[in-house]
Amino acid sequence: MTASPGGKVLDERRTLWIVLLLNAAIAAGFFATGLIGDSSALIANGVDNLSDTAVYGLSLAALSHGRTWKTRAAMASGVMLLLFAGGILLDVGRRYVQGSDPIGPTMMVMSAIAGVVNYICLRLLQRIKKPDVNLRAATTFSFNDFISNGGILIAGALVLWLGTNWPDLLVGLATALIAIKGGIEILRDARAETKTNAETTR
Q: What CA–CA distance (Å, rounded) separates 149 from 33?
């Protein structure tokens, strides 16, 4: 028995609200521990999760609009991700020049907590059947977050072991590069969807 379109939208809305609230909480945790632990990687992921929260908000709004609006929301998500990446690259460069003293255990504990939360978000989004371009963008964000969390965990262990900041800076840089890749993929998907929509309406 297939779910009605209205029921599908309700399920999608409920899922997006859950991942939005979880990402907002994790972003706050990343910012707090990033400032306490002097970690570029933690702050980078805090900005990432905050931008994700905004994207999930766009995705929620897109559920009650047509295909064109959804595609534009996805494109906004892609641009937002690219802007976020630029900000992280600037922060990494600043810390490289001025120096930093990240705290390894703080990085490891926060990344482990965030990894569990982001895995839950990813699984929730993957349960949505036949996701539109906007929901695919949301899934890309959660996947990127999950990968970044693993990088922070490794970097925290290296910082603790080696007593240097370069693993933290390296993960901050990697997070930015993953964000650039994800942003480009979202924009490509949105353009392909726009082309499909234009051909359908002919």
A: 14
Q: Is the dihedral of CA 83, 85, 86, 88 positive or negative?
A: positive
CB half-sphere exposure, 54, CA atoms < 13 A: 13
At 135, which amino acid appears? L
Question: What are phi and psi for residue 131, nearest 5 degrees?
Answer: -70, 145
> Helices (DSSP H) in the chain: which residue ranges?
5-37, 40-62, 67-98, 104-126, 133-162, 166-200
**64 vs 62: CA distance, rounded Å:** 5
CA 45 – CA 154 distance, rounded (Å): 14
Contact 167, 155 (CB under 8 A): yes
pLDDT digits (tens, 9 = 90+) for 12-69: 788 889 989 999 999 999 999 998 988 888 888 887 788 778 777 877 777 766 667 7
CA distance 171 to 107: 11
pTM: 0.73
